[in-house]
Amino acid sequence: MDATEIHSQMIEIGEKARAAAAELAYAKADRKHAALIGAADAVWKNRAKIIEANARDMDYGREKGLSPAMMDRLMLDEDRIRGIVDGLRTVAEQRDPVGDVIAEWDMPSGLHIRRVRTPLGVVGVIYESRPNVTADAGALCLMSGNAVILRGGSEGFNSSQAIHACLVEGLKGANLPEAAIQLVPTRDRAAVSEMLTMTDHIDVIVPRGGKGLVGLVQREARVPVFAHLEGIVHIYVDKSADPKKALDVVLNAKTRRTGICGAAECLLIDRDIAEGLGADLVAALKAAGVRVHGAEGIDGTVAATEEDWGREYLDMDIAAKLVDGVDEAIAHIRAYGSNHTDCIIAEDSAPVARFFERLDSAILMHNASTQFADGGEFGMGAEIGIATGKMHARGPVGAEQLTSFKYLVEGNGATRP
Q1: Which of 11, 17, 76, 302 gives 20 to 30 Å between its CA and that of 355?
Q2: What is the CATH number of domain 233-372?
Q3: What is the pLDDT of residues 313-337, one digit of tens each?
Q4: For the chain, what is the HEC assignment?
Q5: Res. 126 pLDDT band, cuts 50 70 90
Q6: pTM score, two decimals?
Q7: Model confidence at 395, in pLDDT bands (50, 70, 90)?
Q8: Is the pLDDT of residue 90 over 80?
Q9: In this model, does residue 227 exceed pLDDT 80?
């Protein structure tokens, strides 16, 4: 299609989404529940077709030369499809946030005022590699009463289509508008540019992908954006850390899945334990196949350079540095972090309190793997992304975070003097 055809197609999609959003705003919870359970059943029933579609995407990804981390994000097998099904079911069982009374009060004038949750309207989601985002975003937007326009990455085109067909099957079965969850039917990047300027049709854009995609969206979008640019995740190991906890947490945070935004990218070690636990941590990482970019005093795989600080590897690499206590760790994270997720490993409560008080990342952790930085692990069923900004949503964006609010004001003939 040429640019004119894509523009016309996107406007049509936007108009359908806006109409669907108006209907979803008052859809009953039982219909949303039925749609999500129906979608989950359809995904499992069609898992062979989804895996077949994913195989074509994997071939396409190899031809494009995607990195191992990106290929891992792209890949679907039966276990991951089971995860998609479980995510859909978990969201289905959540309490519907629409209409929740956030606050309620009476005024001397006789007014009774309620602040209640209401959908945002139409959400645009632009994502790379991860076809599971098709299901996660569709489910969360539906539960929160929003219509969604999904634009998956070219590498996951076939997988996303197969999953989207299951979501539509669920909508049909629940007698909800099919346009509530739409998938842009083209790989052409012009569709992304269109979405970023569709202020009459889209209320918020959520980008899920690498620095290039998210940076592009943040620079060019005229529609408001929920985004994080990078997951530059730090772990600080305090001198009071329990050795076993530290080894378990650091290894899991780095090696469980290196390609996700919650993977640890920088290890900060209290200088007082450099020759004991610090050396053991570095040795364990190297033994696990991690390339340790070590600063002075650390026996790394390679010497760290200035470029290693503030770097999101998304691979079997980690930067490592000795620091003089929690305050230097905090200063380093402030200088090089991305306000995504940071962790302290310590048994002494004082440095933990200081770490929590003086850092303002969206997620701060104590003695827990940063791989838990995920909406599903927070009890949200799934997430549409992790927002690191400070306006509206922050941290994992689940159904509740995809709502705004309105005021319902009631009187009994009240007049203002």
Answers
A1: 302
A2: 3.40.309.10
A3: 989 999 999 999 999 999 999 999 9
A4: CCHHHHHHHHHHHHHHHHHHHHHHCCCCHHHHHHHHHHHHHHHHHCHHHHHHHHHHHHHHHHHHCCCHHHHHHHCCCHHHHHHHHHHHHHHHHCCCCCCCEEEEEECCCCCEEEEEEEECCEEEEEECCCCHHHHHHHHHHHHCCCEEEEECCHHHHHHHHHHHHHHHHHHHHCCCCHHHEEECCCCCCHHHHHHHCCCCCCCEEEEECCHHHHHHHHHHCCCCECCCCCCCEEEEECCCCCHHHHHHHHHHHHHCCCCCCCCEEEEEEEHHHHHHHHHHHHHHHHHCCCEEEECCCCCCCEECCHHHCCCCCCCCEEEEEEECHHHHHHHHHHHHCCCCEEEEECCCHHHHHHHHHHCCCCEEEECCCHHHCCCCCCCCCCCCCEECCCCCCCEECCCHHHEEEEEEEECCCCCCC
A5: very high
A6: 0.82
A7: confident
A8: yes
A9: no
- The CATH code belonging to domain 3-226+397-410 is 3.40.605.10
Beta pairing class for 341-345 and 363-366: parallel
Average pLDDT, rounded, for the chain: 94
Encode 132-142: b = buried (16+ Cβ within 10 Å), e = exposed. Answer: bbbbbbbbbbb
Distance CA 199, CA 49 (A): 36
CA dihedral 375, 379, 382, 383 (to 10 degrees): -30
